[in-house]
């Protein structure tokens, strides 16, 4: 069901975290900011039920979503799923572990397919009413783990690929303009904006996002949450609306590193529906999963390379001393810090039009999207050309007059993977080998460390993993994170590093939404 509230409810004074605690059997449990581990402990001690948890998040969504525009639909079956989880827990009586995500509400980016009452629309009215053939593979894994599918998160519509130059970060037709919960004028970034906003504002326990180029790392960085971009192929893309299969990956957006790792453990693995990519990456999944690498001494002995240029230049100067303090923390925790490293050809790498990335993505988008649409049971549109026509025929519905669809139109003109696209692939590989990979190997690095989210271009073109951890707030209150990036299949090292850093710094703070101005424009999502 869509989240709709009577306008009178919007005039109530905003109290962030509407319910501070839940009382079950006379026991109190504080829900806001609680981790998966804490929630599971509360389940085990009968301080909390999954139904109570879902009810809390529904209240949060009713209170905050008219302000933040981060959730498109709430699953009408979420409460029933929570009741089923509670019943399974009662019947189990602690005889066996039900798993970390059992009974945990999970929000999905609105490009991750669900075979239920929810739409999968990429934030666009063009796909409303379409019916997927089956759950996305990551959703199948979540359901098997006992997770509650809470609903669909907003995003930069069509991954912002409708118009890279005109569509604002976090805007989609179905939910309006996503709002950064820390700063009303702050950029929520994208495209997984709704996933990050909702987790940051305690509207859900954890969420899933997708990344092709910065779409997990950037919104997580900007909204003071943890975003984990896995190596391409570690998580299946089957059943997810694609951008470019060469670069697409699915990953968790959470408030803590430990939560991100617990979600990762559930969604990784080989999938015959995404055969080639997942077969290669599955070989590197550790026996026993990634949770065992939540090491409070994970920085000890690690060699970290600090890349400042050009990433520090784009950030507010007020964070510079905070960043320097964090570098000292890395040293104090036992890491060797190699500072002021440079990536060869970095100015080319960070420009998708020069690196070959945009050329490849344009062609792959048309091909892969058309294939995805053909697999639907029913749909209002069956091709990229149909979507372009839908937008032209519905200019007000899709704000086509304001934002256009120039990138869509350019992608429609492509004709598969030809000589130009093959050269683009070769260029991206060469830039990665001579740039990031050379930097890592020549300096014997375990991870590259960068402030903010600017290094996502480096990670994107090579399919490399990265994780961003909240690192502080600038003088205006805008969040920023520190990103740890690694070579393919080095999630173990990145988890150890990120977890130790997080535990040593604990920089995340929940947003204080009381200060938001509830103007008509703000409430309508048209900022």
From TrEMBL:
UniProt entry keywords in alphabetical sequence: Signal
Residue numbers spanned by region Disordered: 79-98
Organism: Populus trichocarpa
Record-linked Pfam families: Amidase (PF01425)
Span of the signal peptide: 1-26
Residues covered by the Amidase domain: 53-454
InterPro entries: Amidase_dom (IPR023631), AS_sf (IPR036928)
Lineage, opening ranks: Eukaryota, Viridiplantae, Streptophyta, Embryophyta, Tracheophyta
Name the UniProt record assigns to this protein: Amidase domain-containing protein
Matching PANTHER family: AMIDASE, AMIDASE C869.01
